[in-house]
Request: fold
Amino acid sequence: MNRRIAIAAAAVVALSVGRAWALTPPSNIAAALADPGRPAADAARDAARKPAEVIAFAGLKAGDRIIDFIPGGGYFTRILSGVVGPKGHVYSMVPGAAADMEAKGTATINDFAASHDNVSVVITKGIDLSAPGGPADVFWTAQNYHDLYNPLTKGAPAPTSMMPINKAVFAALKPGGVYLIIDHVAPAGSGTSDTNTLHRIDPERVKADVTAAGFIFVGSSEVLRNPGDPHTAIVFDPSIRGHTDQFVFKFRKPG
Reply:
């Protein structure tokens, strides 16, 4: 078998495995989603957010140390806790500058962490995004990357570059670590012009940001794409809320 055929065959196998996981997720993912302790509101969101497929694409496994950055109400923190198991750890990370805005969600996660030894809430200082205990295996952020381009406090200037943030993510990961970004799609070529108005971002801007910080782009998943989304409505509009066109990008730190 020559090299080109071998690569093609490997791609077919990888695609087949991804589809199989979408139908029958690995036992640790299935168990995390089936946990009777999950809030009913979380389970009701699974059909739209497709956590099994996204987590399988990210390659998460038992024992991983994961940073869940800007976790909101903790939807993914609770799932990831079950996926990594007792030998892994989830650091539910809230930026210090946004702690007041995230207070309600943080309180909910604190309650969860109180009964789950493998979950910790971390309030960042400055742009230090490192987890206690050393570099992480995965840095995960869902539907929040666009917000990093918005002012965190009223009257503050909007950031113009994500290089400091993405370099901090780079430093927070082990060599070979994964940076997983999910966000709402803005029109092609729009850059960051819709981050504060529609809460969307051009996927190509994200790819350019992250690779400029030294990451390798591994690939994307189409599992959350919605070609029927016109990309012109704010993501909270009832006509599209919960069904926006979203990209799922996987990057890797070299090494």
About this structure: The domain at 27-252 is CATH 3.40.50.150 (Rossmann fold).
